[in-house]
């Protein structure tokens, strides 16, 4: 899966999201990546390189080659 512009090969990196390889641009923030993937930020927990990340820090984290992101969706039920 390619994020944004597939013609920009120089800035392309590979990360893992929930164990799956994912190609994206290197200058994207974690928040922008999650929004692009259409996650509701209110309903997820994010683990970034084995650290749980507060939602107020998502914009300050810039994705790098080899990063590992785990996304857990909170589901209510009864």
TrEMBL record:
Domain of life the protein comes from: Eukaryota
Gene3D superfamilies documented for this protein: 3.10.20.30
Keywords linked to the UniProt accession: Chloroplast, Plastid
InterPro entries linked: Beta-grasp_dom_sf, Mopterin_synth/thiamin_S_b, Thi_S, ThiS/MoaD-like
SUPFAM superfamilies membership: MoaD/ThiS
Keyword Chloroplast: yes
NCBIfam families: thiS
Name recorded for this polypeptide: Thiamine biosynthesis protein S
Lineage: Eukaryota, Rhodophyta, Compsopogonophyceae, Compsopogonales, Compsopogonaceae
Gene (name only): thiS
């Amino acid at each position: 899966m390619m994020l944004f512009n597939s013609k920009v090969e120089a800035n392309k990196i590979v990360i893992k999201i929930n164990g799956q390889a994912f190609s994206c641009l290197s200058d994207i923030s974690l928040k922008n990546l999650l929004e692009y993937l259409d996650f509701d930020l209110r309903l997820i927990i994010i683990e970034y390189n084995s650290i749980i990340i507060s939602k107020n820090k998502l914009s300050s984290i810039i994705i790098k080659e080899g990063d590992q992101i785990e996304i857990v969706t909170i589901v209510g039920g009864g």
